[in-house]
Design a protein that fits this description.
Blueprint: E1 8-9, H1 11-24, H2 29-44, H3 55-64, E2 74-78, E3 82-86, H4 92-110, E4 112-120, H5 131-134, E5 139-145, E6 166-171, E7 178-183, H6 189-198, E8 207-208, E9 214-215, E10 228-229, H7 234-256, E11 269-276, H8 284-300, H9 315-327, E12 329-330, H10 335-346
Parallel strand pairs: 3-4
Antiparallel strand pairs: 1-12, 2-3, 4-11, 5-6, 5-11, 6-7, 8-9, 8-10
């Protein structure tokens, strides 16, 4: 069930290697360990553009000093169940895990807890964070935007205003959680960039050229005048993705008080994390009963022609991750070549293939 066909690598060996590269690049040990695990977990779940594919960029940012390898976020605003942090351009995966932990603690006390983070660096794969809360019976929301970049047009426009603006949610059920990880655009910068470099096309017309003509050719994003990613819903229903993008921007840059209205500091993120404790609402048992009913109803839905069975969000990712843990994770073929120069420079040889 692995998402990519090809040689596999032991999950723990990959985590240890990524950890070593980060430590040798000057990242504090505890931060490096969290970042390495989040990146490899992304690959293990099949999110191959937001796992180790991000590590060469992280290492380059560390070398330039535009990502910090040590330090702590500053708490700039605090109430009983709400905090706002300045991430000080520390690694995003580590900041988000800390924010979830803090939000869980607030939720246990107040029923919910929210953390907005300004000036985080990139946060990698959102789905990789969710079980941090759902394993504790908590519901979690994670939303992110990058105020330094714009590649997605608002519905009806051809000018870039937003980034893909991902939003994720982890919903406990008493069994496997439901894990949502979607974006307000049809596709991502990572996927379009990868396909463009390979001379390949998108599965559907998810982008538009500079004249607003939908196309499946990602090359329109890289030649002048540049095209844009379409909001979720495309030409016909892009107002829905546009609305989601506005919501993400309000919850991230808006609540954090730092975003697109400010001078760019380079590749990074504004983030919103919220944790909800079902015990403080209708009760944990009642919450799980309702969500199990919904899950069973979705699984029991009659599939349309060509679909074997209806799945829940995150179901395939969890299955792929279990397979990766048991049999090794198959990395996208571009990942190891991109990391090879860093392995040589930092003196951290890549792990041997498992098969």
């Amino acid at each position: 069930m692995n998402a990519i066909a090809g040689p596999r690598y032991d999950v723990d060996a990959l985590i240890a290697w990524a950890d070593s590269l980060l430590v040798r690049a000057g990242v504090r040990a505890d931060i490096a360990a969290d970042v390495a695990r989040v990146l490899v977990d992304g690959d293990a779940m099949g999110h191959t553009t937001h796992g180790l594919a991000q590590l060469p960029g992280y290492l380059a940012e560390l070398e330039r000093g535009t990502m910090l390898g040590s330090g702590e976020p500053s708490v700039i605003s605090k109430r009983a169940a709400v905090e706002t942090w300045d991430g000080r351009r520390l690694p995003g995966p580590w900041l988000v895990l800390r924010a979830i932990d803090r939000a869980v603690a607030m939720a246990r006390e107040c029923g919910s807890g929210s953390v907005a983070i300004r000036r985080s660096h990139h946060i990698a794969c959102l789905a990789a964070f969710l079980t941090r809360a759902t394993d504790q019976g908590m519901m979690v929301l994670v939303l992110s935007s990058d105020p330094s970049a714009a590649s997605v047009a608002p519905a009806g426009g051809v000018s870039p205003v937003f980034t893909p603006d991902p939003l994720a949610a982890g919903i406990p059920t008493g069994g496997d959680p439901i894990l949502l990880d979607v974006s307000a655009s049809y596709t991502t910068n990572g996927l379009t960039g990868r396909l463009h470099q390979a001379g390949e096309r998108l599965p559907h017309p998810w982008v538009q050229d500079a004249n607003g003509v939908p196309t499946d050719d990602p090359a329109v994003l890289f030649r002048e005048p540049r095209g844009t990613l379409l909001p979720l819903g495309g030409i016909d229903a892009g107002h829905k993705g546009y609305a989601l993008a506005l919501l993400v921007e309000a919850l991230t840059g808006g609540l954090a008080g730092f975003g697109r209205a400010d001078p760019s500091e380079g590749w990074g993120a504004t983030v919103f994390v919220q944790v909800l404790d079902p015990a403080a609402f209708g009760g944990t048992a009642a919450f799980e009963r309702q969500m199990r009913w919904i899950a069973d109803a979705c699984h029991g839905a009659t599939p349309r022609p060509g679909v074997e069975r209806v799945r829940l969000p995150g179901e395939r990712g969890l299955a792929v991750a279990r397979d990766a843990r048991a049999n090794g994770v198959a990395l996208h073929p571009t990942i190891m070549p991109a990391l090879a120069p860093w392995a040589t420079r930092l003196g951290a040889p890549a792990p041997a293939r498992r098969s």
